[in-house]
Design goal:
- By secondary structure, the protein is α/β, with parallel strands linked by helices.
- The protein folds into four domains: about 1-30; about 35-100, Urease, subunit C, domain 1, CATH 2.30.40.10; about 120-235, Roll (Diaminopimelate Epimerase, Chain A, domain 1); about 240-314, no CATH class.
- It has ten helices and 13 strands.
Length: about 325
C-alpha cells in the first residue's frame, strides 16, 4: 500500500514538473515578440536553387537575412526557425539565387550621360549612327551641344578614322562630341573643333593624338586618348545636377537588373560626381556598394594631391 502511494506521488511530481517546464516555455515564447526573437530574420528566401559558392556545400534551398547580413544558409526546414510574423518571406518557386556580382571597373555616371544624351551603343552600322545623331539633334533643338557616345571604331572599316565631315552632314549648326564605346577616342564635328580653338597648327597634347590628314595636316575630327579628348570636352557646358542624377539612376537600375551589387567607379574627376552619389544615397536610390576611385590627371602632377585628399575625406 505504501509502495503504491509512493509510486503515485512520484508520477504526480514528474507530471507537475513537466507541466511547469511547458508553462515556462509558453511564457517565454509569448513574451518574445518577433523583434525580441534572437533568431528572427528580416527576410527569408526559400524554395529555390541557391548557389552558395562554397565548394563543400555549393547548393542550398533557403537563406535568412537579418540587419543586412546573411544569418542562415541551408534547407527550408531550418529556415523556419528564423521566420517570425514580421519576417518577409519570399518564395523562390524553384528560381535560382546567387551572391551579387561586382564590377571592378566601370563609369556609371559617364555612361549614363552618354546613353541619355545620344547613345549609339546598340547600333551596328555607320548609317545607323548618322540617323541616330540626326534624330538626337532634331529632338533637342534647345541643346547647345549634341553629346553622347558608344560608337565603335570597327564600324568605320579597317584603318579608317571617325571624321568630322560625316557629323557635319547631319549636324552642321551645332557642335557635336561623341566618345567611343571604349572611352579612349572622341568623334567631333567642325563646329566643335572651332569652339575648342583647334586647327592644323595645334600640337598634340602629352599622351594624346589629334588625328590629321596625312597630306594636308587638316584635323580629321578624331581625338585619341583623354588628353586630346579633353581639348574639346573641356569647353562643353557642365551637366546639371538633374542630368548627373538621372545618369547615375539609369546606371544603377541597369546594374541591379544584371545582378551587380558592388562597383568601383574607376574615374571620379570632381566633387560634383561624389555629390551625385551622395544625393542618390540620401534618396534611398543607391542600392549598390560603391568604391570611388579619384582620377589622377597626369598633367597636374603632385599639385593635385591636396585636392584629392579633400575629396577622399568626403
Amino acid at each position: 500500500m505504501v509502495d503504491h502511494l509512493a509510486k503515485e506521488a512520484l508520477v504526480n511530481i514528474i507530471i507537475i514538473k513537466q507541466a511547469v517546464v511547458a508553462l515556462m516555455l509558453m511564457l517565454i515564447l509569448s513574451c518574445c515578440s518577433s523583434d525580441e526573437n534572437p533568431l528572427g530574420a528580416d527576410m527569408v528566401l526559400a524554395g529555390g536553387a541557391i548557389y552558395t559558392i562554397d565548394p563543400a556545400n555549393p547548393w542550398a534551398e533557403a537563406v535568412a537575412i537579418r540587419d543586412g547580413k546573411i544569418v542562415y544558409v541551408g534547407d527550408t526546414t531550418g529556415a523556419s526557425a528564423f521566420t517570425t510574423e514580421k519576417t518577409q518571406v519570399v518564395e523562390l518557386n524553384g528560381r535560382m539565387l546567387m551572391p551579387g556580382m561586382h564590377d571592378a571597373h566601370i563609369h556609371p555616371i559617364m555612361g549614363g550621360l552618354e546613353i541619355l544624351s545620344c547613345g549609339l551603343h546598340e547600333l551596328k552600322t555607320l548609317q545607323q549612327y548618322l540617323e541616330k545623331i540626326a534624330l538626337c539633334a532634331s529632338e533637342h533643338p534647345e541643346r547647345p551641344w549634341i553629346r553622347g557616345g558608344g560608337w565603335s571604331m570597327a564600324v568605320f572599316g579597317p584603318g579608317a578614322l571617325a571624321n568630322k565631315e560625316l557629323l557635319d552632314s547631319v549636324v552642321p549648326d551645332r557642335p557635336v562630341y561623341l566618345a567611343s564605346a571604349d572611352g579612349h577616342s572622341g568623334w567631333v564635328n567642325s563646329r566643335a573643333l572651332a569652339l575648342a580653338g583647334l586647327d592644323a597648327g595645334t600640337a598634340n597634347p602629352v599622351g594624346g593624338i589629334i588625328d590629321r590628314d596625312a597630306n594636308t595636316g587638316e584635323l580629321i575630327g578624331s581625338l585619341q586618348e583623354q588628353s586630346a579628348m579633353d581639348l574639346v570636352a573641356g569647353v562643353i557646358p557642365i551637366a546639371t545636377d538633374a542630368e548627373h542624377d538621372a545618369a547615375l539612376r539609369y546606371a544603377v537600375n541597369m546594374l541591379s537588373a544584371y545582378g551587380i551589387t558592388g562597383i568601383q567607379d574607376a574615374w571620379i574627376r570632381d566633387e560634383e560626381e561624389l555629390r551625385t552619389y551622395q544625393r542618390l544615397q540620401e534618396e534611398g536610390e543607391l542600392n549598390v556598394r560603391v568604391v570611388a576611385s579619384l582620377y589622377w590627371e597626369p598633367s597636374k602632377g603632385l599639385k593635385q594631391l591636396d585636392a584629392m585628399k579633400i575629396l577622399r575625406e568626403q
